[in-house]
Every structure is written in structure tokens, then in C-alpha cells.
Amino acid sequence: MASLLIEEANPARISDQESTESTARYYSYYDRDLVVVDWDAALIVDEPAYFDETLYVMELANVQLAELEAYDRILDTAVERSYRDVSVRRLRGRQGGDLPARTSRDPHRSGPA
Amino acid sequence: MSDELSNITKFFGDWHLARIYQGLSARFHLGDWHRTIDEKLKTLDDLYQLMQAERSTRWMFDARDGDGGALPDRRSCCWCLSLRIAGALSGFDAYLSKCGIPARMQPRSVWRFSRWLRPTSLLWTTSSCPKRWSCTTSAFDPKRERSTSSKRRFPRSLQTRWTLLARMDDKPVGFWIGF
What we know:
The complex is a heterodimer. Chain A is mainly alpha-helical. Chain A contains 4 helices and 3 strands. In chain A, strands 1-2-3 form a 3-stranded antiparallel sheet, with no helix packed on it. Chain A starts with a helix and ends with a helix. Chain B has helices at residues 2-6, 15-28, 30-63, 78-90, 92-98, 110-116, 119-123, 132-137, 142-145, 148-153, 156-159; strands at 162-168, 171-177. The interface between A and B is large, with 49 and 44 residues.
């Protein structure tokens, strides 16, 4: 199952740690259904009639992630431009308080993606 | 769209689906993304407030000048603007008090005054000034005219940035601080 989720061609080479990590988030309601979610892929075991709702929820989460990434990219550009504007003003000799600190946290770096 | 996505959990009537969503949200680090975006929005807001404060400072003199009227017309003559500044040069402290600037915020010398009043204020309409000829022909080289006392008060690096635009009687009024 871990090899399916992480798309590893050779399951025998996957470590126990990676197997555990990839399959850690699993959800089940009846004894015949199972949903395992990971970063790149998810595994759904269920009656075909009940797939849709689960897929819908997954799609929403993906759209949210894409939306937040887009916002983050736009804000990065805007913040950089603002810092540049303020810096230009400072170089021209204008007074003012200290610049606000740049945000250092970035999910691109802290996230496991 | 954003609100709908942010409040998507409201639409879950199925606790099992909600659990799946929570798992996906944790796997995708959606909370971290939200926090990062909030921080960047706050940074942008801080920068905007900073620039807004600087702009307000630049406008302070002109906005409260004279009878405390509205902001000056950008097309107004720089000569007229220089005349208004004359009051500040001849009685600077009193002028600042009249403008409503607290004593603790008042600069302590003419040099500080030059840092308060940004050159853009004087250079708005130099090209369209109807008395530009009389202004420019009054210009002088501050290096030749500085006195011993001015050497002490105004270092050379600052003196060379001063250019007189106009005189009123024998008194200099209206400077361009040429950065």
C-alpha cells in the first residue's frame, strides 16, 4: 500500500519508516471501507456508490492548497515590491521607523512536501 | 469562493467525511499556509502604514501652513511656497508651534528643518513657476557664502546640497536641497 501511495516501483526497498509515514493517516467507517491519504496520492476502498463524496472532499482540499499557494506567491511579489519601494524612499533620505520584520516561515521549506 | 473553501467544514453532515477532510488538511499543512499568508498580509499592512506615515509627515508643513487650510494645489507657484517657508526660516520654532507640531517633535535647527521638509515639496512646479526666472537668477553657491559659524553648524557635505531658489529683501527664502 505504501508503494502505491508514494508511487515506488520497488516495494521491497521501502523502509519501515517510510511505510509507516505514508500509511499513517487512514480512516474507516464500516469494516469494508478504507481511505488512506498521503501527499501525492490516496487509496480509497469502498462501494462505488460512495466514492463520490470522498473524492469531492479530496478535490476541495486540493483546490484549497492550490489557492493558498497562489495567494502566497502573489503576496511574496507584493511584499518584495513594497520593501523595494520603502528602501528607495530611505535611500532618498526620508525618515521613518524601523521596517517590519520579514516573515521567515514558509511552508515550502517547513512542509514535508 | 475563498470563503466557501475556508468554511467547508460547515457543509459536512457526515462526520466520517469531516475526519477525512481533517486528515487531508493536516497532510497538506493547510493551517501553516493560512498562518503564513496572514503574516504576509500583516507585513504588507505594516509597510503600507509606514509609507502612509511618511507621506503624512511630508505633507504636514504645507497642509497646516498659514491659515491651516487644505492641502496646497500642486500647481501652485514654488515662489509662493517659498514665501510661506520664509516664516519657518525666520521664526522656526514659532512657526512649528503655529502649525500645531508638539515641541518634542520640533527639529532644533534649520538643518533639521531641511530634513523635515522634503525637496519634493519645493520642486513640484519649478518648471511651471511664473517667476522662475527671478527664482533661478537668485540662486547662489552656498560654498562661497558660508560663514565660519555655518561651517560649524552645517558640515560641508550638507552645505553642498543647499541651493537657494529665492530671496526676500536680504533674507534667503526657499531652498532646494539637492540630493
